[in-house]
Amino acid sequence: MPDTLTLYVCSVDQRGVKVHPCRQAHIALTEAGHPHDKVVFDKGHPFGLFTTGKRPELKKMSGQEKLPVLVLPDGHAICGGKNIVAWAQENAPQAAG
Predict the structure, then answer these.
(1) Is the bond into 68 cis (omega within 30 degrees of 0)?
(2) Dist CA 97 CA 86 (whole Å)
C-alpha cells in the first residue's frame, strides 16, 4: 500500500476553470502542504460525462465513478472536489519541529 496520498483527476486537471473540482482538489492539497501523487485517470471523459460503467477501476477503489478521488495511505477514498478540499484544510500536515 502506498505511503502517500494519491489524487486521481480528469485530463482537465489544473488547466480547468477555477470551479473545476479536479483543479480545486489539487490546489487545496498543495496549499495545505500535503505531498501527493497525481494520476490523470481518464483522458477520454474530461468532465465525467457518459462515464457510467466505464470506470470500473475507479468504482472498485472509491465506490463511485466520478473524479476527483483522493486515496489515503490506508486505502480509504475521499470523493468529490468539495470533500477533498475540506479534508485537505482540516488535516493539514504538522510542521516538523
Answers:
(1) yes
(2) 25
DSSP 22: H
How far apart CA 60 and CA 20 sit, in angstroms, is: 24
C-alpha to C-alpha distance for 58 and 51, rounded to whole angstroms: 11
3-state helix, strand, coil in the chain (%, to 5): 35, 20, 45
For 15-25, write each residue's pLDDT tens digit. Answer: 666 788 999 99
C-alpha cell at 12: 482537465
CA atoms of 42 and 33, how far apart (whole Å) = 26
Residue that the C-alpha cell 486515496 belongs to = 71
pLDDT attached to residue 27: 93
How is residue 61 written as a grid cell? 477503489
Give Cα separations from 91 to 10, 43, 62 (angstroms): 24, 30, 20
